[in-house]
Write a structure and sequence with these properties.
This protein is an alpha/beta fold. Helix content is about 45%, strand content about 15%. It is built from 23 helices and 13 strands. A 5-stranded mixed sheet has the order 2-1-3-11-4. It has a 4-stranded mixed sheet with strand order 12-5-10-13, with helices on both faces. It has a 4-stranded mixed sheet with strand order 7-8-6-9.
């Protein structure tokens, strides 16, 4: 195993069983479902290769959908008797309604979803097809880290999902030309970050933009990951642990919300709390903002890779250090997964698609298309290099810094949902950092 693959394995091994959220947001409404999607009569004939069978695949828009579209098109060329229709749902709506969709009469045949606490509930409800046989027959138990397999293991000991890619963040993408014009360097501490704001404003830039209205919880996750030592961070995110650190009135949590407010006041434009990710990214790609905060997926060819001018000089850095005795970390997530619905009569075809998507060749294509970072650890450095120097450097730097899990993927869904609203509320001044922290604490206490 080469150095890059050893890094890859080392990063993923530390990932714990987690909860919520994934990739890029969208405002598109769901496409209409085919009323015959769960009719199993055609699948019986299709097994003989004579008749057509249609599968419905549900997902969210953005890089995830872009990747799946490519996979679906390639798969259908090799399997002309199988048609796959993709239904895209806005991320927040899908996150909330996905579990109900999967147990309804309108359920898809397979789905991209997050392997989090909601996934565990879905698996426990008996609506998913177990994939243990595929982990053995396809060798996934050898090419995926044990931590990602443990993540998708349900209470009954079976696995019902497979991790398709990894993501990390928050990442601050920056315009190198803007930094040069303002005469500023990449900040190493939060104080240094705030200090470069006025200089960037003087030369005509909004210092920082972010989709605070829809993905602002990434900011809080990044700040919390840098606010606690690893052992304490685990205690903070695990509500079943009785420890003084498992308290959202903790001074470090309040201070993280303080930074949310300060970032909004000193680095972002007026009304930043209500800006969505699409508009924030547009300000950056059009050269109006010097920095843009999001996750690793934003660098894919579906987003920045497609939208930036060819002569744009793109740089990046991770959130700076907050406390002298706590080195900064990067949050990583390996929960992006594919699921197969049980009882559709088309499980064998859905599994065939999973085999195709998770094959080494398709994971190499994922890298070649610069879409999302592959989940398999048996790819060579040469296989991954098509992601481009920025992606590879981000990945290697992440390993050097060390990793945590995204805070909002570790805590229960009530805390995560509340935090999505609290970040813009604190940024706009509607709530104080103390009030936001207390609201999380109240939710925590009610959930115990």
């Amino acid at each position: 195993m080469n150095k890059l693959n050893r890094h890859f394995a080392a990063v993923l091994v530390v990932l714990l069983v987690a909860m919520l959220f994934g990739c890029a947001p969208s405002s598109k409404e769901p496409k209409e479902s085919d009323s015959t999607q769960n009719d199993s009569s055609s699948s019986t004939d299709a097994s003989q290769g004579n008749e057509q069978v249609e599968l419905i695949l549900s997902t969210i828009p953005g890089p995830v959908a872009e990747r799946l579209v490519n996979d679906v098109e390639a798969f259908m060329k090799e399997n002309p008797n199988i048609k796959i229709k993709i239904n895209e749902f806005p991320e927040a709506k899908y996150m909330d309604q996905g579990p109900r969709l999967f147990s309804s009469s309108e359920k898809p045949d397979l789905a991209w979803f997050w392997a989090d606490a909601d996934y565990k509930k879905i698996a426990d409800a008996g609506v998913l097809e177990p994939l243990d046989d595929m982990y053995q027959s396809e060798g996934w138990d050898h090419v995926l880290p044990q931590s990602t397999i443990d993540r998708v293991r349900a209470k009954d000991g079976k696995v019902y999902a497979v991790n398709t890619e990894i993501v990390w963040g928050p990442v601050v993408y920056y315009n190198k030309a803007a930094f040069e014009k303002a005469g500023v360097d990449v900040p190493k501490t939060m104080d240094e970050w705030y200090q470069i704001g006025p200089k960037l404003k003087e030369v005509g830039y909004i210092p920082l933009v972010s989709g605070n209205a829809d993905v602002g919880v990434l900011i809080l996750s990044g700040l919390l990951a840098n606010s606690f030592k690893p052992d304490d961070y685990v205690k903070l995110t695990n509500s079943e642990i009785k420890d003084p650190v498992n308290n959202y009135n903790h001074e470090h949590v309040v201070n993280a919300f303080d930074h949310v407010k300060k970032m909004g006041d000193e680095l972002m434009q007026k009304g930043a709390a209500g800006v969505n990710d699409t508009d924030a990214r547009a300000l950056f790609t059009q050269g109006k903002a010097a920095m843009y905060s999001n996750g690793s997926w934003a660098a894919s060819d579906a987003l920045l890779g497609k939208e930036l001018p060819k002569d744009f000089q793109l740089g990046y850095f991770y959130y700076p250090q907050i406390y002298n005795d706590i080195p900064p970390k990067v949050a990583v997530y390996a929960g992006n997964s594919l699921l197969v619905m049980k009882g559709t009569g088309k499980e064998q075809y859905a599994k065939k698609f999973l085999t195709f998507v998770m094959s080494k060749e398709r994971q190499k294509v994922l890298a070649q298309n610069k879409q999302l970072f592959p989940s398999r650890i048996d790819l060579s450095q040469q296989d991954i290099e098509p992601m481009g120097p920025l992606y590879v450097d981000m990945y290697q730097k992440m390993n050097e810094l060390g990793v945590m899990n995204f805070w909002h993927t570790e805590v229960n869904s009530e805390l995560s949902t509340a935090a999505r609203a609290l970040v813009p509320a604190v940024m706009s001044g509607q709530k104080t950092p103390q009030q936001a922290a207390q609201e999380l604490q109240s939710i925590l206490e009610k959930s115990k």
